[in-house]
Queue: 2 jobs
Job 1
Amino acid sequence: MKLIIAIVQDQDSPSLVQDLTEKEFRVTKLASTGGFLKAGNTTLLIGVEDDKVNDVISVIEENCKTREITTSLLTVTMPGDTYIPYPLEVKVGGATVFVLDVEKHVRV
Ligand code: 2BA
């Protein structure tokens, strides 16, 4: 068995969770925050048999879009210690996916 951890954008998560559950994959949705943008995103935990990993990744690919986000994360220091926000374009997504081996899975 494998545990798929997928970090996706909040906008993509409702359709992705719906597609996964319709295809009878079990999924747990966690609210998370990206370290770089410090904006909310969604982390999904999906436990599947080894031969289903690629099916899950295909569903993720179908639902998760790449988006350009403009953020004012960078600041420019001006004389007199004035900080001016500097717009920064960042490409986010479609999804960041980790596939981990599961040593043991128990449902009681
Ligand atoms: P964030 O950390 O908020 O990153 C958002 C986007 O900012 C990233 O999109 C990437 O395009 C950019 N970015 C991140 N760190 C950067 C840096 N040090 N310098 C320049 N640009 C940077 P994605 O790569 O699609 O990542 C989306 C979200 O997935 C991330 O949100 C984070 O929550 C998660 N993530 C991505 N890679 C990860 C990793 N290796 N481990 C854990 N979480 C990861």
Job 2
Amino acid sequence: MLDMTRKILLLEQTEGFGDKAVVGGLQEFLDQVRRRSLPQLRPEEQLRLGGILELLDGYGSAAAGERKAMLETGLQLIVDMQAHSAASIAPSTSPASQRRARSARSVVSPETGAAAQSVPKVRPVRRPAAGASPAPPAARLGGRAGIAADLDGPIEQLPGIGATLLDRLHKLDIRTPRDALLAYPQRHLDRSSFTPIGNLQPGQLETAMGTVVQVHTQRRGPRMATTTAVVADDSGQIMATWFNQPYLQRTFASQPRVVLSGKVDLFRLQRQFSSPDWELVTDDDLLHTGRIVPVYRLTEGLRPKALRTLMKRCVDTFAQLLPEFLPEEVRRAANLMSLAEATAQYHFPDTWDTRLAAERRLAFDELFLIQLTVLQRRREWQREPGPRFELEDTRVRELLNRLPFALTEAQRHALDEVLADVRSGRPMNRLIEGDVGSGKTVVAALAMQAAVSNGWQAVLMAPTEILAEQHYHSITDLLDRLNGDAFHAPVVRLLTGAVKGRARTDTLRALKDGSASIAVGTQALIQQGVELDRLGLAVVDEQHRFGVDQRKGLRQKGFNPHVLVLTATPIPRTLGLTIYGDLDISVIDEMPPGRLPVKTRWFNPEERGRAYDFIRRQVEQGRQAFIIYPLVDESERMEARAATAEYERLRQRVFPTLQLGLLHGRMKSREKEEVMAAFAANRTQVLVSTSVVEVGIDVPNATVVAIEGAERFGLSQLHQFRGRVGRSSEQSYCILLSDAPGAATNPRLKAIEETQSGFRLAQVDLELRGYGDLFGTRQSGLPNLRVAKLTDTELIETSRRLANALLDSDPTLAEQPGLRARMEQLWHQDSELS
Ligand code: ADP
Ligand code: MG
């Protein structure tokens, strides 16, 4: 009979689970077997077949995917049974088949009376002894003697993975045991402590252990079956219910000791568990309950219990095979678990403490690998000599006296640090971090002057053409002043995509033969075809828009030039220690004197008219205004169109007496240049613009910036927009506008109203949105951190210190092949950085 059932199930499988293996359908066949054949069989056969029927109960009404799973399990069960058919049902070797066989017992004899047994001991999870040497070489797949486990072999080498499960694992990108070990849990549930049943609280997630004292299944039609169990311990009893899992009745009847985890509800004034996770209390380690339980990312059709069971098997077999790649002294110094133990404990922790220790180890790995990469790069960079710029202090004072203003204390300090670098003979790699308007450009100009007076060339790269042009004008102006007049100043050339034809050829030639000392431009500067004669200094404005690759490209252009990066985006200290760890940082944390805070105010949609009146009055007083009309997540074309429409509306209806300009990214370079020149010369008073004015535009006479759709922007971007004004000693204003309901209560808008400091705003942004938005991962150049947190300053500092120490003793990591391989892997996951 068993064999016949097997054949029919196989047939059904080849037929594609359509419930049509036999006339009338498989379900019909199974029902007949239950009614007619079962009573005539010998008792052991009854038991076996009963188990199969139980398992396939509801097949006809199950979904296709479910049928497949049911059938696979059923077939497996039959194979198991036939393998042991010579003996009676027990003992069977595999715990799984043992459990199934037990659940197939037909006699339901609920224990009565609430006299629950004392709580059984949960056997602690086996743990490698501390300091045990990693990777016992002869790990074998459980039970299958002779088959060596292969971390990078197919995941199917674990027993019990059928085609369906395999397919789902592949959906989760789990192909090998190593992949599975790296598929860390998203979180853990604390099911480690049992609440006495009498104390279970409705509304809480609880875990309890007890004995099933009653169980029955009620059928309500072909698709509906409710199994209800009463579970008791010394302190009381509680009901638990499950839907459409009728096999539970037999399971609990033969194995009444259970652990339940889940939410406690009130049902008709009675406490009950609804569909709790359950687990039998056997000699095996508890896996789904009664411990700290990992929660994994799932995919459709993959149940938490199935994945967790697989993960446990995988961790037990393979975690110990993970080779230790950290040098022993590093592990000791940072007090870290072995990789094998950390992996096991991060999946299935014994305690919250071991989970934390495991997390710390895995987080350390990520940070340590980043530090090694960054510090090694820095050391490499610094090994070669850099150009040496001589500049006497008296000469510096002379230059400073020629500026139209005195440097702030902070500018002076940054300048001193830059000068020390360029005089040292080692290549500078410095970041100047200063809020919008803090005066970074002049510091860069002085460094460029130092380069030129020592016979070197310097380049300045800006993120946009508009900004490059503006820098071209301000740098030319500053150098004229520093050298007394235009006649004695070095030759400065502009090189952007907009410079074409004859002008371009001339500029390229001048840069190549060295007759031009300075080039200002966009990325075009480091494109192929641009050759420089003696590049000694590269200044990069708004660095976080430039990738590491470009920096490398710059370096390859010349002679290991000094690199000076300017940014208005404050780098959180922890990021500064990680990805910017190869940069020295100077901070300009002071504004030029006389600057007034930009008054910032939110205007309701109904107050728009008042906002326009305000702008009109400012213009009547001789000032100018930006009206920024940016769209988020729209194409540049859409943005340009929207801004154009707004420009027409404002020009015709709102400000018919004023001169308006329009600026957007779709305009030709020449047009943009003309628009900017007109605005800079106050020939236009109101500039309607898309987000192209975000960075760096410097028109000190502009005192109002109105930002439309303000609620859609990040704080850093709003702050950049706001930074277009407040560039003189006049009082400036920032008007925030939006038609979106609820914008008035937006916490970001509140923050920008109340806060002037870009550094403080970046901090708030970080708190509100996480660092990902402030520094998109790609922009930051950081590899994807899976465990480490950038808020963990202690661990970051420890990893940096130990990475430095290791590089001191082994600069090329020649003795650490495992570590080198891991470094490669980390950066190749998702970052172009190498
Ligand atoms: P950012 O740091 O945003 O690049 P800029 O370098 O564009 O700022 O400087 C902003 C404005 O402040 C410029 O007009 C510049 O001439 C002026 N400025 C810079 N330093 C000083 C100073 N020490 N005193 C007065 N004005 C200054
Ligand atoms: Mg600037």
